[in-house]
């Protein structure tokens, strides 16, 4: 998909931000369409309505557009005295590879932002400069979402066995010395009886995956564990994940439930034992190092100091465990979260090493239009603070309203085994599968 390189039209917006009393759960204010949501632990920010929307060609273009939008705002709209993330902001979702997709990347500036962080609550109202601002009253609470009913599953671009063949092809190319690592993804399609309400998914993902960032931006919904870059008043954090283990990988005798469905002492490995296996695995450690190096290399020119821990920790999620490294840095003044996302994407966690060879290999053999899966998703405020996660453990709501494309990918290295990688991709699909299939409420 190609878009003009020139900057899309820049609207003149104004905004007012006010502190509000605790509004209760922000999810209660979400309508079934046309909203954005971002939740992490107890904190959240939601966007209602659309003050401005822009299809962008790249992260760099989005950065330029948002800077221009902010520069065109009256000074008092920018909330200079307020903390990071408070005030006018834009949500966005970006394609993994703009040169190999039919999808666009998008930034959305909502009309109303409701936010809660560390026990503080705020509302920002945004409008075109010559139009009235939305009402100062709290927006009405909406009806609870209902589930989509029974779900039928089908293969996406490739069947499981075909994808295993593709993984084998990648392993051969790595053995030939053409590249060190490539991340290959697959998709599955859920078809439902009733309409899929994104709020249903958000309401299931956010409490189950509090260590992840649960998002709904445009047609993308998920709960990702990977933070590409967070900028908060000059401090940068990037959580790099690569190297994965899941209970099913530990062999049939060691799964959590035996034939009776009950756990027994002999067939259950403790979480710490599984974490130990992961943190000793040469394959996973090698894969992880490539991802950390790619992030540190991309951040370095933009930062005045950086701390890269030598040893990863194990991030335990309900479905999988990952090797994780939190890179911290101090950013050069004036560098926005979108500019850093542009520098970091695609990291080796979702693309591979070397980047160019891996990206070309993905385009050639993966057989999938990733669209916005594995691209940056998040928000940016009027000072350039923001959080851009990588859109993983997610799906795309398809235009018919009754189906969804779910994605999962795995880092392939020299000693990857196709059957294991297929198992790993299935484990990564679990959060979205469960959220869609749950029938209660
Ligand atoms: C590509 C995905 O996950 C990435 C790949 C990982 C791996 O191969 O170990 C781990 C975390 C993510 O960086 C995905 O979830 O779709």
Automatic annotation (TrEMBL):
Reactions mediated catalytically: chorismate = isochorismate
Domain Chorismate-utilising enzyme C-terminal: 161-428
Classification via Pfam families: Chorismate_bind
Sorted UniProt keywords: Isomerase
EC annotation from Swiss-Prot or TrEMBL: 5.4.4.2
Keyword Isomerase: yes
Stored InterPro entries: ADC_synthase, Chorismate_C, IsoChor_synthase
Lineage: superkingdom: Bacteria
GO molecular function, one term: isochorismate synthase activity
Similarity comment: family membership: Belongs to the isochorismate synthase family.
PANTHER family in UniProt: ISOCHORISMATE SYNTHASE ENTC (PTHR42839:SF2)
UniProt name for this protein: isochorismate synthase
Species annotation: Raineyella fluvialis
């Amino acid at each position: 998909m190609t878009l003009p390189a020139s900057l899309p039209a820049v609207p003149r917006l104004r905004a007012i931000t006010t502190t509000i009393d605790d509004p209760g759960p922000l999810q209660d204010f979400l309508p079934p369409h046309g909203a954005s949501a971002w939740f992490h632990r107890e904190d959240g920010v939601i966007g209602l309505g659309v003050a401005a929307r822009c299809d962008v060609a790249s992260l760099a273009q989005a950065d330029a557009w948002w800077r221009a939008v902010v520069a065109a705002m009256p000074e008092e709209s920018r909330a200079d005295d307020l903390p990071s993330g408070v005030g006018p902001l834009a949500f966005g979702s970006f394609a993994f590879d703009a040169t190999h997709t039919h999808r666009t990347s998008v930034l959305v500036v909502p009309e109303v932002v409701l936010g809660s962080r560390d026990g503080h609550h705020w509302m920002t109202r945004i409008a075109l400069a010559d139009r009235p601002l939305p009402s100062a009253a709290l927006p009405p609470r909406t009806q609870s979402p209902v589930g989509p009913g029974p779900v039928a599953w089908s293969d996406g671009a490739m069947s499981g066995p075909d994808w295993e063949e593709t993984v084998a092809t990648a392993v051969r190319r790595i053995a030939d010395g053409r590249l060190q690592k490539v991340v290959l993804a697959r998709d599955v399609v859920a078809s439902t009886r009733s309409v899929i309400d994104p709020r249903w998914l958000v309401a299931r993902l956010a409490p189950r995956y509090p260590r992840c960032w649960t998002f709904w931006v445009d047609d993308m919904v998920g709960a990702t564990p990977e933070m590409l870059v967070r900028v908060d008043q000059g401090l940068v954090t990037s959580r790099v994940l690569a190297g994965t283990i899941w209970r099913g990988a530990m062999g049939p005798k060691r799964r959590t439930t035996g034939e009776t469905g009950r756990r027994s002492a002999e067939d259950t490995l403790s979480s710490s034992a599984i974490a130990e296996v992961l943190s000793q695995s040469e394959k996973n450690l090698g894969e992880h190092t490539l991802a950390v190096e790619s992030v540190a290399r991309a951040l370095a020119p933009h930062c005045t100091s950086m701390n890269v821990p030598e040893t990863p920790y194990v991030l335990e999620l309900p479905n999988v465990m990952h090797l994780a490294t939190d890179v911290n840095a101090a950013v050069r003044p004036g560098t926005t979260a979108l500019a850093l996302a542009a520098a970091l994407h695609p990291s080796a966690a979702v693309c591979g090493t070397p980047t160019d060879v891996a990206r070309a290999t993905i385009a050639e053999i993966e057989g999938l239009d990733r669209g916005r899966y594995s691209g940056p998703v998040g928000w940016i405020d009027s000072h350039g603070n923001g959080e851009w996660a990588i859109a993983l453990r997610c799906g795309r709501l398809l235009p018919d309203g009754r189906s969804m494309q779910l994605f999962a990918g795995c880092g392939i290295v020299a000693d990857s085994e196709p059957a294991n990688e297929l198992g790993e991709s299935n484990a990564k699909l679990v959060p979205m599968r469960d959220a869609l299939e749950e029938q209660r409420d």
